[in-house]
Amino acid sequence: MGSTNPPAEVSIEVFPYLRVYKDGTVERYAGTEVALAGLDPETNVLSKEIVIIPETGVSARVYRPNNFTKASKKVPLVVYFHGGAFCISSTADPKYHTSLNKLVAEAGIILVSVNYRLAPEHPLPAAYEDSWGALKWVASHIKEDGNLEDWLKESVDFEQVFLLGDSAGSSMAHHLALRITESDEVRDLKILGIGMIMPYFWGTDPIGAEITDQFRKQMVDNWWLFVCPSDKGCDDMLINPFIDGAPCITGLACDELFVIVAEKDILKDRGKLYYEKLVKSGWPGKAELLEVEGEDHMFHIFDPNSEKAKSLIKRLASFINQQNAPVV
């Protein structure tokens, strides 16, 4: 005889990522796969997991080329924030693991990929606070105070730190770079650049392709309203950097900004708007915008072996290493 228990009732469906049942159970459809850290034979990049904030269990996956030794020269550090609409994926996601192995191999850097907590179990701003805590942990290596990681101590040039994020991770990189200027705990980090890969910014009033693409506009609206329950809706300053009351972007604590958008991405126009407003704001740094033709959101994560994905990784590596480029 089959079970007589009634099926669990669904409380909310967040297409295409997850559903939440009325008993509080969360069922994710994507971003749940796991790739183990270790030596990647294709790229010869080594990675390992470390807990960086024991109080909350926030961890990171740290990457380095396997041929690094204590005698190797100091190299740039990338602090990376993965995407997933703040509610799916992790540093162990095979798609991210593959992509970051390729970036580390191409750029010859140390990379810290932050495993922040996800909504709805941990609604925003938990992810932002976790990522801020990760930056403070990185900065603690300068004064050699606290829970330190040998790979960072031995190989990182803390005068060459970059914040990189894709999608939701770009939003966090933006807010962290504004917060740095007001904090003594992180001010010793020299943030040379920020790479925003198909950034996830949003707003209530549609712009660009959002005006005609009502289906995807509503879908992205629903994502944000789910992960950030606030009375500001899609005009919360966490997701709309240009709403009244949001911090002025001229305070962005970096020398250079690289914004990458994809032609078919519904988020494209917000990324372009960010770039344009920053350039016109009086911010003293250098900004660059790249639009990848014929591609959609996060194409390089879903198909890392495509020619355009390989080209994007090379551009990111060049952005990170331009300070080390020989003067011709």
Protein described:
Keywords: Hydrolase. This is Alpha/beta hydrolase-3. The protein is α/β, with parallel strands linked by helices and 328 residues long. The protein contains eight helices and twelve strands. It has helices at residues 94-107, 126-139, 150-155, 168-180, 214-227, 268-280, 299-302, 307-321, and strands spanning 10-14, 18-21, 26-28, 39-40, 45-53, 58-65, 75-81, 110-115, 156-166, 191-197, 256-262, 286-292. It has a nine-stranded mixed beta sheet, sandwiched between helices. β4 and β5 form a beta hairpin. It is globular and about 60 Å long. The N and C termini lie far apart (79 Å).
Summary keywords:
23% strand, nine-stranded mixed β-sheet, 8 helices, 328 residues, single chain, three-stranded antiparallel β-sheet, alpha/beta
How would the blueprint of this fold be written?
Layout (H helix, E strand, L loop, with lengths): L9 E5 L3 E4 L4 E3 L10 E2 L4 E9 L4 E8 L9 E7 L12 H14 L2 E6 L10 H14 L10 H6 E11 L1 H13 L10 E7 L16 H14 L28 E7 L5 H13 L5 E7 L6 H4 L4 H15 L7
Parallel strand pairs: 7-8, 7-9, 9-10, 10-11, 11-12
Antiparallel strand pairs: 1-2, 2-3, 4-5, 5-6, 6-8
Helix pairs in contact: 1-8
Protein name: Alpha/beta hydrolase-3
Organism: Melia azedarach
Keywords: Hydrolase
